[in-house]
Design goal:
alpha+beta; Nucleotidyltransferase, domain 5; 5-stranded mixed β-sheet; 3-stranded antiparallel β-sheet; 31% helix
């Protein structure tokens, strides 16, 4: 079995994805993954141990019965329909009798990028606090820029919180911010000359559960009371939630539906009052904006939601080790197919 404490495993037995812990002092790093996974077969077995720690699960029918590993005739590789060789590890369900692999029905399904490369990119996306740009992935791993961008988009899709998700309660910090550059910094023909109040900034709303540290962010059309209430209702048990906000007037209309409401008045220089503040959201916004500016440089409104999912995922799992964060992500990859341009 894969040892998440050490990040190390022994050479695998082809028909059994069993990994043996060797050293409690080793940590999972990009170098240890590169040294330990030297073939596609090992990459498949590695992912099996992360996705299926208790044994294979059929993606077609969900059966957890003992499935059959289809051993290649050559012992290492099998022929595909086109005649080429692949080291893809294939299983057969003992219930529905269909064949499957660890990538079937996941965000990796149908990808022609080697699984070894995918695992490296997964680690980079999980471990890099500021994220990683698609162009950097293209340079480091020798894939086309469009391929690198699509890979990161697939992983961001997997990082999304499952919907409909469970509602949070207790004390929740709520704040909103704008993402994007100032229109005054654009060329004149890009500013929308003559249009009053023109701005391409995109508003987002973020909720942070003070009890668990989980963060949930969402792109919104505006920060009116109606919009904020819909976001809060979709994420919180309103009658069991005390919200901590700033003094934005839209929250006052929502407060009667909540268990409680505490606010700090930034316009009067009040940022903390006892345990009341919006600092949890401000910290998240600071990291998000620095990363967008420094790593990605520009994110369109169309795709901002997926980038928020990425930063939400890393923030919510910030207390986990890199290998445990990878395991959490592998637990969310099923049933999230994404087509190019989608």
């Amino acid at each position: 079995m894969w040892c998440r404490l050490s990040g190390h495993f022994s050479p695998f037995v082809l028909d059994k994805p069993i990994w043996v812990c060797h050293s409690l002092s080793m940590k999972t790093t990009l170098m240890t993954i590169a040294k330990q996974i030297k073939s596609e077969a090992e990459a498949y077995a590695y992912m099996e141990s992360m996705r299926w720690p208790d044994g294979p699960i059929c993606p077609h029918c969900g059966s957890v019965e003992k499935h059959y590993f289809l051993t290649p005739k050559s012992g290492t590789a099998r022929k595909t329909r086109t005649g080429s060789e692949t080291q893809r590890r294939v299983w057969k369900c003992s219930t529905c009798r269909k064949q499957f692999s660890v990538t079937t029905g996941t965000v990796f399904h149908g990808s022609k990028v080697p699984l070894q490369t995918w695992l490296m990119v997964v680690y980079e996306m999980c471990a890099n606090k500021n994220g990683i740009a698609a162009r950097e992935i293209a340079r480091k791993y020798g894939v086309a820029p469009k391929t690198a961008w699509f890979m990161t988009q697939r992983l961001r899709e997997a990082m999304k919180r499952k919907a409909p998700g469970s509602l949070i309660s207790g004390t929740v910090v709520i704040d909103e911010t704008l993402i994007g550059g100032e229109p005054k910094n654009r060329h004149g023909y890009e500013r929308g000359v003559g249009r009053q109040g023109y701005s391409e900034k995109t508003p987002i709303v973020t909720l942070v559960d003070k009890g668990t540290g989980e963060v949930r962010s969402q792109v919104v059309a505006d920060v009116s009371g109606k919009t904020l209430r819909s976001v809060i209702a979709a994420n919180c048990e309103m009658e069991q939630t005390t919200m901590h906000t700033d003094s934005w007037r839209a929250y006052k209309g929502i407060a009667p539906e909540m268990a409680g409401h505490e606010a700090v008045n930034h316009s009067e220089g009040e940022y903390v009052r006892g345990n009341v503040s919006t600092n949890a959201c401000e910290n998240f916004f600071s990291q998000l904006k620095r990363s967008i500016d420094g790593t990605h440089h520009h994110v369109s409104r169309e795709h901002l939601g997926r980038y928020l999912s990425e930063f939400d995922f890393r923030y919510s799992t910030r207390k986990l080790s890199d290998s445990d964060r990878m395991a959490r992500l592998f637990g969310q990859v099923h049933g999230r197919r994404l087509v190019y341009g989608g």
